[in-house]
Amino acid sequence: MDFNWFDVEELDQGLDKRFVGNYAGADLWEELFRNQFGTEAWIITAQQMLALNAFESLRRPAKKQVTVFISHRQNDVALARKAAERLRRRGFDAWLDVEDPTLSQLSGPQHVRNLVTFLVTAVIIEIALINSTHVLALFTTNTKGTMWVPYEYGRIKRDNIFARQAGSLYLSGPPVPDYTLLGTQLRNMSELNNWP
């Protein structure tokens, strides 16, 4: 089954039902949210699951459709949406954090967000990464200092030295990191017409 990240019918039944189906990570998600959500015990369980790399051992499901995880800095959301739209016009699915219905329910001002929200956000992003076939990392003058973009770029990269399914779109700013040489480098939005 392809990753149907935008389907939120299950949310009415509780957060533990968010990822129902044959998705990589769905059983871990359900286990994580089954009991004690938001309590100190839940936080410890979530941290233990992440520390034990419970998600690392998951196998990526066989995919019929290409799903591109778009990695970006929040200041570049307009560019990320533009890249997603360009990919969708070509028939690909594109996962974008600001469009994920569960993440949008969790979002709020940084000073209001707590450890539970941060952990839930991290797990949702991890499930999206595991169920995506490709990653597109956007690099602009805003990217410097982010911890997420390098992580997300490397998380999808396969065991090969060069990975075509990992793409970097360099739009402005300092030179792109050296590790992007191990994937597909794109220099403008129009190059998305030939990738993935």
Describe the structure.
It is a single chain. α6 links the parallel β3 and β4. The protein is globular. The longest helix has 16 residues, at 115-130. Strands 2-1-3-4-5 form a five-stranded parallel beta sheet, sandwiched between helices. With 196 residues, it is an alpha/beta fold. The protein has helices at 26-34, 40-51, 77-89, 101-106, 115-130, 148-156, and strands spanning 67-71, 93-95, 134-139, 163-170, 183-186. It has one domain (9-194): Rossmann fold (3-Layer(aba) Sandwich). The relative contact order is 0.15. α2 runs parallel beside α5 (115-130).
CATH class: Alpha Beta
Distance between the terminal alpha carbons, to the nearest Å? 20 Å
β-strand number: 5
Question: In CATH terms, what is the fold-level topology?
Answer: Rossmann fold
- Structural class by sheet pairing and helices: alpha/beta
What is the general shape?
Answer: globular
Biggest sheet: strand arrangement? 2-1-3-4-5
Number of domains: 1
**Topology order in helix (H) and strand (E) letters:** HHEHEHHEHEE
* Name given to the CATH architecture: 3-Layer(aba) Sandwich
Mean pLDDT: 79
* Percentage of β-strand residues: 5-15%
The rounded Rg comes to 17 Å
| Main sheet record | 5 strands, parallel
